[in-house]
Design a protein that fits this description.
Length: 329
């Protein structure tokens, strides 16, 4: 209960700071509009800027997610915010992210452009839901690596051979190897009582660690046919659901390793200086979700304002495919 009031205060503070006036929020499977009403499921997430007919900046993200009650016994979950089994879901995911400048046909460093970077990490997470008070708390710990060890060059080269039959150039100038150790904490609160065809929530969160340091706030809207994402947390009520969502986000960026280089390793051949990083970044997520019994399908588009002084706006799209492992009651 004390944690609940503390997070409400944090939410109020963030909206007070940002209502008047990033490295944005990338793969986020834990928002209420992406809820799968089961406590055990698989989900595959793939996003790429080819969905928006571009090929630069945040160029690709892949996430393979598994949720199951047994994960609550993993040692790393002891570092997460936990609750009893009826109010919490526990999961792990393997995530790979790739970033490039505006051109991948030059072997030399493109000054004033985005650095090449790739990251791979294991994310351990918990989602605590309170249907009575209409809030959820998400905590996640990411452990992995940024740099050549993440295999970004090899992955992009393989994809481009499939599509273009040419190799991307410039990866020898990428952000060098360093440790990814990051903690995420989100608080999401419903704004209005649940209506049959409409839902709205507010969210505030923070990322702290060697990969990303930022705070952010957002408001999300859902309309269509769907279960109450707070009430039916681990049990699907409707066998068919279809809805659209919209989520504008404001990010206040403190540190971004994909732009500024690793937290410990400063040997990267090219980075964006701290003075050129954009500190306030706006992002908008919108998408369509279809749920048919155990199958979950989502298509989405994301827009992001520029992340550094000499950069530009960016947008990408993606899909999510989920499969519930729980029988219907």
């Amino acid at each position: 209960m004390h944690c609940h009031y503390l997070m409400k205060g944090f939410l109020f503070l963030l909206f007070t700071v940002f209502a008047l006036p990033g490295h944005g929020q990338l793969i986020d499977n834990m928002a209420s509009y992406r809820t799968i009403q089961a406590d055990r499921y698989f989900r595959l997430h793939y996003e790429n800027d080819y969905f928006s007919e571009t090929d630069y900046y945040y160029t690709q993200g892949i996430n393979l997610e598994y949720v199951h009650p047994a994960i609550s016994k993993f040692p790393l979950t002891r570092l997460l915010i936990r609750a009893n089994a009826k109010k919490a879901k526990y999961g792990i995911s393997l995530e790979h992210l790739g970033f490039t400048p505006t051109s991948i046909s030059h072997p030399e460093i493109l000054k004033g452009d985005r650095p090449f970077a790739a990251s791979v990490f294991l994310k351990t997470f918990a989602i605590v839901n309170d249907s009575t008070h209409g809030y959820r708390i998400v905590s996640a710990l990411s452990t992995g690596v940024i740099g050549p060890a993440a295999g970004g060059q090899e992955m992009q080269a393989t994809i481009h051979r499939w599509i273009h039959d040419t190799d991307p150039l410039g990866w020898n100038n990428q952000i060098q190897n360093d440790i990814v150790l990051n903690y995420q904490l989100d608080y999401e609160q419903k704004l209005l009582p649940y209506k049959k065809y409409f839902s709205s929530t507010a969210k505030a969160g923070v990322h702290v660690g060697t990969w990303s340091d930022k705070i952010y706030s957002s408001v999300s809207f859902m309309t269509g046919l769907f279960d109450n994402p707070f009430q039916y947390f681990s049990r699907q009520h409707r066998l068919f659901q279809v809805y659209v969502y919209e989520e504008p986000i404001i990010n206040a960026v403190g540190y971004d390793a994909t732009l500024q280089g690793g937290f410990f390793n400063t040997s990267s051949p090219y980075t964006i200086s701290a003075g050129d990083v954009t500190r306030i970044v706006f992002q908008n997520n919108m998408g369509l979700v279809l749920k048919i019994r155990k199958l979950n399908i989502e298509y989405f588009q994301t827009f992001l304002t520029k992340e550094f002084r000499t950069g530009t706006t960016h947008h990408w799209g993606g899909i999510r495919l989920g499969w519930s492992l729980r029988k219907f009651s």
